[in-house]
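Priority: medium. Attachment 1 of 2:
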């Protein structure tokens, strides 16, 4: 803080000296009309002195009157920047939290995908077994139906054969 005040003081003194040098140069270019000091009329020096004092008094009054409002405005701005920074920090923390949640979801999604694939394979195997069992049952049913059809055809064939034999015996006896 002291370093800043020292630097401000040095800058103020240099600015004042630059102003004085500029004024001296301007006044020196005019033709002297009375007593002079460094080639500049003393009336001009007094005029410069009064103007400089006037400016210094105005600057001091302005600094006294405006120092608190300017300081308050700067403090308010500093506070708003601090609050905005804290808000940004909070939003960053929230974004990091959301990011971590999504990272966890992504890592768990791979496990879920593996589980889904395993479940699908297990269901596929169970369906395969069910289809095989259904096929075996259907084959057994078809085999039973075929056997029944064979038995039925055999019974019909025997019946026809008996009728045929009976008809031939009757026909043979009649003849």
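Attachment 2 of 2:
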């Amino acid at each position: 803080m002291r370093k800043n005040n020292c630097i401000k003081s040095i800058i103020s003194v240099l600015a004042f000296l630059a102003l004085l040098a500029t004024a001296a140069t301007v006044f020196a270019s005019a033709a002297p009309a009375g007593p002079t000091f460094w080639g500049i009329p003393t009336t001009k020096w007094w005029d410069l002195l009064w103007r400089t004092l006037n400016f210094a008094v105005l600057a001091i009054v302005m600094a006294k009157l405006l120092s608190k409002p300017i300081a308050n405005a700067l403090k308010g701005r500093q506070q708003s920047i601090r609050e905005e920074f804290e808000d940004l920090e909070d939003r960053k923390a929230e974004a990091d939290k959301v990011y971590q949640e999504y990272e966890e979801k992504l890592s768990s999604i791979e496990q879920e995908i593996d589980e889904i694939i395993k479940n699908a394979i297990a269901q596929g195997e169970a369906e395969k077994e069910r289809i095989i069992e259904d096929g075996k049952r259907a084959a057994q049913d078809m085999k039973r139906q075929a056997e029944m059809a064979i038995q039925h055809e055999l019974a019909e064939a025997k019946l026809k054969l008996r009728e045929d034999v009976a008809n031939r015996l009757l026909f043979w006896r009649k003849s």
